[in-house]
Amino acid sequence: MPLALSRMGVLLGIFIILWAGVTAGFGLYLQTRCARYLERGSASFFALSQITYPNAAVVFDAAIAIKCFGVGVSYLIIIGDLMPGVVQGFSSNAGGVGFLMDRHFWVTGFMLIVIPLSFLRRLDSLKYTSVIALISIGYLVILVVAHFVKGDTLRDPSPLRVVRWESGVATLSSFPVIVFAYTCHQNMFSILNEISNNSHFRTTSVVVASIGTAGFIYILVAITGYLSFGNAVAGNIISIYAPSVSSTIGKAAIVVLVMFSYPLQVHPCRASVDAVLKWRPIRSSDSNASPSRLATLLPSKTTSQRSDAMGETRFAAITTAIIVLSYIVAMTVSSLEKVLAYVGSTGSTSISFILPGLFYYKISSPDSPHHQKLMKEDDDEDDDSGDEDEGLLGGSGLKGGIWRKKLLRRLSLALAIYGIVVMIVCLVTNTLFVVVH
After folding, report:
1. What burial class does residue 39 get, using C-beta atoms within 10 Å of its C-beta: 0-12 exposed, 13-18 middle, 19+ buried?
2. pLDDT tens for each residue of 373-430
3. Using CA atoms, how far apart are residues 187 and 194, in angstroms rounded to an integer?
4. E strands, 47-168, where?
5. How far apart are CA 29 and CA 27, in angstroms?
6. Contact yes or no for 177/422 (Cβ under 8 A)
7. CB of 57 closer than 8 Å to CB of 49
8. What is the pTM of this model?
9. SS3 helix, strand, coil % of the chain, rounded to 5?
10. Residue pair 137/257 in contact by the 8 Å Cβ criterion
11. What's the rounded Cα separation, in Å, for the pair 154 and 411?
12. Between residues 305 and 363, which one has the greater pLDDT?
């Protein structure tokens, strides 16, 4: 984030951080709305694809699986790259011990830690490791702010970029970094399935609190980090601090963070791989079915639990395949920067913007049988609430509700179009940088 601010300028950089948070948060909000059309506990990208774009479901899940797999591999590569420096920071004599400087040793060692965590079925089983990861993030934020307050860094004497940017190309190169910093949409449906209170207020509060906290941290670190080093700031700000125990602990905190983030990528990757293996093309006769026939496609409590639950053998096989393949790739490849640039440009934009926008726009259509079924259920609940609410539900209240739903549909389509534009911009930017470098 400090490097992005250096390239974009302070004002534009802060605006882009806020804008990226708003658009990412809106994508998460649309996911909460889409989940209402599915039975409690059965929400997933695959389930939504089956009732919106059934023949494209395999493409969506394949993109999610590849994206999550690539990010997971990058976490292992980061561990292998950072750990030799962490060990040397704590003990200067460690450089003489060959295996401690070998990235393969550390990738193998940390795989033994993350393997048991990767076999957990539920995301809430990772709440304790997530707390440790959050503590690591807290330490990194405090480290950056503390060095800024102390003023013990060597700042570039060139004037700070407040309004003007470095260049158009440099600005575009930092844009994907900010946009993808908010990507967490691959786990949103799992959270909605497991959260105890899935009311509209509760799920919206979770989205606002998460995106708001992330945005605040990004802006804080971006400003203090940029003011600490000026235009000489690097992409990994921790790496340019003077060697000390605190900076070494900061590098170790990054290792802990990515280590406990690896299982969070395995979870959606496993679900998407399972969906790809289960996918079968929908015949044209099925797509032309009547609304009453399509309405039965909505999963019920009993059928969803019976069909969506992954068997123990299948669960273990898919998880093992993901772990083994990611380990092999991390051991044989030292850098996935160019590959991940393209995977992120396509996978992250699809998960964050395109799919939530398209899914909601399709499923909330007034002609959709799923939307009609949901509206009927809502009307039944309103009828049960009594006649005293009639004034609120009728007249201007009803018109206001219809107007808001129409606006939400239009905004969802706009988000999908925005996602396509972001994908094109990121792909073009990555291609230009690949050619230049």
Report:
1. middle
2. 555 455 444 444 444 444 444 444 445 567 788 888 899 999 999 999 988 888 887 7
3. 11
4. none
5. 5
6. no
7. yes
8. 0.78
9. 80, 0, 20
10. yes
11. 46
12. 363
Instruction: Determine the Cα–Cα distance for residues 332 and 10; give it in Å rounded to an integer.
Output: 40
Reported as a single tens digit per residue, the pLDDT across 195-254 is: 888 888 888 999 999 999 999 999 999 998 888 888 888 777 887 887 888 888 888 898
CA 308 – CA 298 distance, rounded (Å) = 13
pLDDT per position as a tens digit, 302-340: 444 434 567 888 899 999 999 999 999 888 876 666 666
Reduce the DSSP state of residue 296 to 3 states and report it: coil
Q: State the DSSP code for 252.
A: H
CB burial class (10 A; 0-12, 13-18, 19+) of residue 233? buried
Which among 185, 133, 176, 231 has a CA at the least distance from the CA of 359? Answer: 185
Count of all residues that appear for the chain in the document: 437
CA atoms within 13 A on the CB side of 128: 3
Structure-token pair, residue 157: 């004497």
Gyration radius of the chain over CA positions: 24
pLDDT in tens, 10-27: 899 999 999 999 999 999
